[in-house]
Design a protein that fits this description.
The complex is a heterodimer.
Chain A: E1 5-14, H1 18-29, E2 34-38, E3 54-55, H2 67-77, H3 84-104, E4 118-119, E5 137-138, H4 144-158, E6 162-165, E7 167-174, E8 180-187, E9 193-203, H5 224-231, E10 236-237, E11 242-249, H6 259-262, E12 266-268, H7 276-279, H8 289-301, E13 313-316, H9 322-328, H10 330-340, E14 349-358, E15 362-363, E16 369-373, E17 379-387, E18 392-393, H11 405-427, H12 436-451, H13 461-475, E19 479-480, H14 482-500, H15 513-537, E20 546-547, H16 555-558, E21 560-565, E22 570-575
Parallel strand pairs in A: 1-2, 1-9, 2-6, 9-17, 15-18, 19-20
Antiparallel strand pairs in A: 3-5, 4-5, 7-8, 8-9, 10-21, 11-14, 12-13, 13-14, 16-17, 21-22
Helix pairs in contact in A: 1-4, 1-11, 2-3, 3-11, 5-15, 9-10, 13-14, 13-15, 14-15
Chain B: E1 12-19, E2 29-36, H1 44-54, E3 73-76, E4 79-82, H2 88-91, E5 96-100, E6 107-109, E7 112-113, H3 116-124, H4 144-148, H5 167-171, H6 178-189, H7 197-202, H8 218-222, H9 229-244
Parallel strand pairs in B: 1-5
Antiparallel strand pairs in B: 1-2, 3-4, 3-5, 6-7
Classes of the chains: A alpha/beta, B alpha+beta.
Chain lengths: ~600, ~240
Amino acid sequence: MAQMRSMTFDALIIGGGGAGLRTALQLSGSGYRTAVVSKVFPTRSHTVSAQGGITCAIGSADAEDDWRWHMYDTVKGADYIGDQAAIEYMCRTGPEVVFELEHMGLPFSRTDEGRIYQRPFGGQSREYGKGGQAARTCAAADRTGHALLHTLYQNNLRHETTFFNEWFAVDLVLNSAGTVTGVIAINIEDGETVLLQSRATVLATGGAGRIYASTTNAHINTGDGIAMALRAGIMVQDMEMWQFHPTGIHGAGVLVTEGCRGEGGYLINRDGERFMERYAPNAKDLAGRDVVARSMVLELQEERGCGDERDHLLLKLDHLGEEVLNSRLPGICELARTFAHVDPVREPIPVVPTCHYMMGGVPVNIDGQILRQADDGSDEVVAGLYACGESACVSVHGANRLGGNSLLDLVVFGRATGQFIESALRDGISLESASSDDVERAMARLRRLDSGSAGNNGDTPAALRRAMQGIMQRCFGVFRSGELMRTGRDELQALRPRIEALSLSDQSSVFNTERFEVLELQNLYEVAEATAFTAELRTESRGAHAREDYQERDDENWLCHSLYWRDGNRCGRRAVNFSPAGMDAFQPTVRSY
Amino acid sequence: MGKDGSNVVSNKLQISIYRYRPEHDEAPWMQDLEYETGGRDLMVLDVLEGLREQDPSLSYRRSCREGVCGSDGMNISGRNNLACITPLSQAAPDGRLVLRPLPGLPVVRDLVVDMTMFYRQYESIAPYLINDSPPPAIERLQSPEQRAQLDGLYECILCACCSTSCPSFWWNPERFVGPAGLLQAWRFLADSRDTADEERLAGLEDAFSLFRCHGIQNCVASCPKKLNPTRAIGEIRNQLIKRAV
């Protein structure tokens, strides 16, 4: 390879979704040389698919609404392993951050008073669970993620952020002191490999739902940042916690927002029964997503599913009337017609629980600094590296995320990460250098793939990906058991050498999508393996992690985060934060809806 | 399409697909292929994913696979559309599917076009809210009626299906803003919160930026989100005329 070009920035953001763009905006708005590396044009990032809204106590639908109620709901929704200082920060700061988005131009739907429209979502309550259902999710019709992502991209254009669009980040560069100095990235359009150096590198690479066969996630959600961190020796947290969204369109996996149930829609089984009344007598269809998803799987197991195969349930919306559907849920009507061939104005939508969100990620503090565990078990910071958004685990979602909290997470912690880096840059972070050996280490994976020396035995990325997704779907789904998970883990690990040995049938440089497909599959594999090990480790049922062989929550042993390191598949534990800054913590109680 | 979604789709699909790999091909060529559909009414993107398993060198963009990210705009049997939401029953009713890159933009490879010019046009209209008065402590108020003015505008996904179907864009991409850019220009002009009407209009009053639109309406016909750039252009034109009087 010819001499590799290098470029240097004050801050480098990997990922152009909601979290990355919010971080970048903070920094470029303050005049720092900020670059975003995005493997797709930023408005094509998966934030664009978020539908129902951004949950936040702005007091529009209910003037008395209180961020502390939102905090309570989030702590309970997380099944008590969300970090309460972080949840407090998110819920308290949220209104300011949402108003900022409005000021930037986000076209929220409006109330008659001209304020931001808010709708009810799952797991929301007034008065700490005692005052009934709240309406706290701020919405731009059912296209809130689209509106948010475009608004952030537009404002980054205004502040002249540097964009490396359709560039793929391969691996982190760490120097001998363990400081992250930048990344190796490839320009997808011409194949040039470049060293991007920075004083601060931020992972904002989103989720990895493509480890499962059936997912609401985009093709690009391949856990690139998680895998980069794992390969760099950094630990990840709570990777067993995957959210299955109750309403993915049967067959297609496409998301149907929880806002449908917020607006008054409900689920029915083959007898036409509104079955959630049996499982969650108070919240019914607006119980936590984990609760609704499990109820649905039980209905299917008990042969009350719909259709000839009894393999799905129905989401009934027609009683809401055409006008509400067209004004509040226009995107859903379009998706249902396209992917389910039904018109929600007249017919219910066939749905099944579908992999949707990764609660785990790279552990960070509120400032976005990535944490590692010191020898005495305490947290310490990884120099030069930050994370925010779905790829990070701060942890505000714990064992189960509430609907509308992901967009809030992106912008609150995207901004907080940006603010922290901003002040650090102002104080003067020196640019750490990396030796050619350090760079060469980060190039190893790419060199192996490009040399074709690994000895491919006729495998294709598509076939291996399908095999991995099948294992994850079968063994690490809504309900789990030790035996099945161990089988799944062994089958999964048998795939590693084959995935690492993949070589390219197409060696060309220009827009070679096969090359990135292999790199992405390798990233997915790292995420899947982390999930397999931590899921088997946690011998209890909590939030999204439901075990048939350990059906109860076990606070004595498992009121903690799980940790995982790639080296030797080592697992560990980390304490949950019960120390909010300005109030008493919410203590674990029985979680019912 | 049948009401129950069961469409009669031929088992054997005849596909003709535009191929161009600059490192291998002296000129673009059309590759003829057959594809087993199993009689299912697949989306065009499903077919492409299947073809790419057989031939990994086939390149195209895709991401969300549900019509909201705007990655997979292409020319499908003569019409610009998104591959992920175009079913075979619509794209190949006679069992013949022709796939080409979006017209009017340089081809990078196969179905991938260089969208630099398209994005530049978008950037030219200052695609962000301008309001330099100090914001209130809460949101800026906007009535539901004022907000309704943005419907049919803000939903644009920047897929370029409209602009690349527009003859005025083909002739003058450097100077005509194109339907997607103009739709966004009106999105901000129509926003009750935006205070830069004068600057926005001044930027569009020359003979090319907007007035190269000849009302052909290919943009309307090709928009996968059913938006109407021609109407937006008409609204801006009215404002420009009013301003000139």
